[in-house]
Amino acid sequence: MHGYGIKNIMEVRPDDVGVISEAPAILGEGLFVANGKISWLDIEARQVFHNQRTYPLPYDIPSVIFEADESSLLLGTHRGIARLSNSGSLTHLVSLPGHDPEKFRLNDGCKLSDGSYLVGSMARREAGNLAGSIYRFTLSGEVTRYKWACHIPNSFVELEDGSVLISDSLKRVVFQVNFQQNDIQSKPWYHCQGPETPDGGCVLPNGQVALAMWGGACVRLFRPNGTPIEDLPVPVFQPTNCKYESLSKALVISSASVELSDELMHRYPLSGHVLTRKLEK
User: Fold this and answer.
1) Please, what is the average pLDDT of the chain?
2) In the CATH scheme, what architecture does the domain 9-278 have?
3) How many CB atoms sit inside 10 A of residue 195's CB?
């Protein structure tokens, strides 16, 4: 098991890592992987990358991709839930009650096994002073807003029992959350021990949970009960999300280059890129 400090790029063997993106993102996020195709976005640059094309969104701040197909993708922006077509047109579908796009933007989310969706919001400025909200919605317009003080909601990984792992990246804690009709029950699932903080993740075919560790240069593997197993080092200092790609049996990992020092960019020159990292030989 690797330590929790800053990893060195030389810890990753070159044949374990591939680079998907042509250029680095400032804040690469919203990773979605299905049927061998990969979509992601850059929150800061307001761009979506899908079907080997770049879609600028000058009037919206995209943050999460819920699903994608041959003709469009469903995503969250600071103004609500929208569908982006392959032609580049953006259609807003669902508004979120109580959401103020001047003060808040959406952050991470997921589609649940029952067909509904979860998404979290965070303050656009001074997130430490203002908690966001968690929303559950359907495309027919049904929306529930949960009162749960989560400042920077991330992860959104549904477990086999129907509970959902949601991280508050400000607190560096992963919570296991159960949703009732209008209420949330949560308990701490994992506390980060070092300066890194949990970000996006997924469940692997073997039942383990993989979470990208922002500021830790690794993807951390867990048992379903929250016990850490090992760290998979990656050549980016701020990995933001990871998804399993079944065809290559690899993790796809998005990352950010925002606010990195020259020293860290020198040590982690792939920061901001979308990578693949082999899990199986």
Assistant:
1) 92
2) 6 Propeller (2.120)
3) 13
H or E segment to which residue 199 belongs:
strand 197-203
258 half-sphere exposure, CB direction, 13 A CA radius: 15
Alpha-carbon gap, residue 119 to 135, rounded angstroms: 5
Q: In what order do the strands lie in the sheet with 153-158?
A: 153-158, 164-168, 173-179, 184-191
How remote is the C-alpha of 30 from its chain's centroid?
Answer: 5
Instruction: Give the tens place of pLDDT for each residue, 114-169.
Output: 999 999 999 999 888 899 999 999 999 999 999 888 999 999 999 999 999 999 99
Flag whether pLDDT at 7 surpasses 70.
no
Which residues lie across from 244 on neighbouring strands? 251
The b/e string for 243-278 (b: 16+ C-beta within 10 A; e otherwise) is: bbbeeeebbbbbbbbbebeeebeebbebbbbbbbbe
Measured distance CA(148)–CA(127) in Å, rounded: 15
Question: Residue 180, Cβ neighbours under 10 Å: how many?
Answer: 9
**pLDDT value for 181:** 75
For residues 144 and 99, is the Cβ–Cβ distance under 8 A? Answer: no
Residue type at 99? H
Domain boundaries, the chain: 9-278
Q: Are 275 and 236 in contact (CB under 8 A)?
A: yes
DSSP assignment, residue 262? H
- Tell me the pLDDT tens digit for each residue of 194-230: 789 999 999 999 999 999 999 999 999 999 999 999 9
